[in-house]
Specification:
Layout: H1 15-32, E1 58-62, E2 68-70, E3 73-75, H2 77-90, E4 96-100, H3 106-118, E5 124-126
Parallel strand pairs: 1-4, 4-5
Antiparallel strand pairs: 1-2, 2-3
């Protein structure tokens, strides 16, 4: 038995399809990858016990509807800076505690911190109420 062996052609691997596949994989991974780390940061806020004006801390509450309370009285955002500045004029080293409600908008908390800083507050604490869950 004799088998006709045809002369074999040299096998060539073209580079163009290989480059296309590599380019498609590169585009896929660029689009599918997230380069930002959006993980949250756990914050352990201390508990505020007293809110009376005669005590050392100035307590600013951020309510869940977005309003503010300064030492138990409702205050508009535009008045918050001026009211805190008046309180800090008597004692510039007084601690200012920002106590957001659990459902308070985060942007309002940031506004409160900005207003306190604009009023000259340097001793600022982010706190929670005694009855709130962590």
């Amino acid at each position: 038995m004799q088998i006709d062996a045809k002369p074999s052609r040299p096998i060539r691997i073209g580079l163009t399809p290989l480059v296309d596949v590599v380019f498609i994989l590169l585009v896929f991974f660029m689009l599918a990858t997230s380069f930002l780390d959006w993980s949250g940061i756990a914050i352990e806020a201390p508990v505020v016990v007293a809110e009376r004006a005669d005590e050392e801390a100035i307590v600013v509450r951020v309510r869940e509807h977005g309003g503010f309370q300064l030492l138990g009285e409702e205050v508009a955002r535009g008045e918050l800076t001026e009211a805190i500045a008046r309180l800090l004029a008597a004692g510039p080293e007084r601690r200012v505690a920002v106590v957001p409600d659990p459902e308070a908008p985060l942007q309002q908390v940031v506004h409160a911190l900005d207003d306190i800083a604009a009023a000259g507050g340097t001793n600022i604490t982010l706190a929670r109420s005694p009855g709130e869950a962590r």
